[in-house]
Amino acid sequence: MTARDRCTSCNAPLAEAGSTWFSCPVCAHEINRCYRCREQSIPYTCPKCGFQGP
Ligand SMILES: [Zn+2]
Ligand SMILES: [Zn+2]
Questions:
Q1: Residue 41 to residues 1, 3, 9, 33: CA-CA distances in angstroms?
Q2: Structural domain tally of the chain?
Q3: What pLDDT sits at residue 1?
Q4: Three-state DSSP class for residue 27
Q5: Ligand 1: centre distance to CA 19 (Å)
Q6: Share of the chain above pLDDT 90, in %
Q7: Euclidean distance between CA atoms 34 and 14, whole angstroms
């Protein structure tokens, strides 16, 4: 884990356990989600291509 990892949805640093990341289904850009956003199913927007998903 690196210090620049931030949640794509709320921009919080991903320091907490339970955070996750995956590739954007459209452009494969890395999407990061913190534990809180994952638990609450906060929508994300890909910063690269603008794709929105759950
Ligand atoms: Zn978040
Ligand atoms: Zn994308």
A1: 22, 24, 10, 10
A2: 1
A3: 43
A4: coil
A5: 9
A6: 63
A7: 6
13 domain residue, yes or no: yes
Is residue 54 assigned to a domain?
no
pLDDT digits (tens, 9 = 90+) for 25-41: 999 999 999 999 999 99
Tokens 């929105």, located at residue? 52
Q: C-alpha distances in angstroms, 44 versus 4, 7, 12, 29, 48?
A: 18, 9, 13, 12, 12
Q: Ligand 1 mean position to 26 CA, how many Å?
A: 21
Domain extent for 8:
1-49
* Residue type for position 9: S
Nearest ligand for residue 44 CA: 1
